[in-house]
Amino acid sequence: MSVxxxxxIWTRPHLLALEDLxxxxxLAILDTAEALKEVxxxxxxxxxxxxxxxxxxxxxxxxxxxxTSFSLAAQRLSADVxxxxxxxxxxxxxxxxxDTVRNxxxxxxxxxxxxxxxxxxxxxVSRAVQCSVINAGDGSHEHPTQGLLDVFTMRxxxxxxxxxxxxxxxxxxxxxxxSRVARSNIWALTRLGARVTLVGPATLCPQAxxxxxxxxxxxxxxxxxxxxxxxxxxxxxxxxxxxxxxSVREYTRFFGLDRQRxxxxxxxxxxxxxxxxxxxxxxxxxxxxxERSAILRQVAxxxxxxxxxxxxxxxxxxxxxxxxxxxxxxAAAAEAGANAAVGDTAP
Length: 347
Ligand code: CP
Hints:
The protein is an alpha/beta fold. Helices cover 39% and strands 13% of the residues. The chain folds into two domains: 3-142 and 302-323, Aspartate/ornithine carbamoyltransferase (Rossmann fold); 144-297, Rossmann fold (3-Layer(aba) Sandwich). Strand 3, helix 5 and strand 4 form a beta-alpha-beta unit. It is globular.
């Protein structure tokens, strides 16, 4: 769909969870990202779409990829970006999350990008402020932009082979129980019609997850020959309440992806990992850096996806979206600039 069509479909000020989104809303983001990806190939990597807007990164957990790509995404759309430092803020004096975000918003902020260890924190923030709120990962709940960039990467790779997302069988492997990435992948992939199999030890991949419309397996070797995509997840030791497997060595033996195990898969299988990787544990260096891996392509695509999310959420606010003020000066110009910059491409 064109960017104009995407803007008509996308009316939300926030992106909190992929579970909430319709198929068309997911496609609106993916198609807008496809149009915006071109901006990063220009010598001057900037369009005026969000000129005059302010985006605050509010990360209560560490991040390499998500924080940096949200910052770059906002800058490429000409927004001003503030990286809020939680460790040196008044949070250390006991200020509540609600007070923190209301004070930040009082300084004239248009969007808060939040990562928090507690599931549901972005939703709480969205009810406390008037500006847009984007979930950059909350506890073990969701990591919507990671799910979107994973699906975007699959769509891009398999389009070149004449396949759609609905033609794919995707294995998500590892620590599913603690994974916000897995949940966001499941919602996006199933809504777009993919077949999804979750693979892991019973302690990290319980049968109950089958209620999400996916298949469950505890045998990676049996699943590998059947799938188009293997999305390897990080074992999240920081979230394991107790030992979920007897030893790291045993986990690697049954659920780690090395060259020998990869040989069981289809020759054109696509290997993904959201990062950060535990190299040598869930994935070996030979596979992570090998020819079937699209791990760095995922990171590159994350920038386009986050540009699309900011453009749709903050742009919708600017031009009379649910929280916006229709007729706000500059809004029409920003929209015109954005549309001219991204073009009206029909993927
Ligand atoms: N995939 C991901 O969320 O990475 P970061 O923790 O580095 O942001």
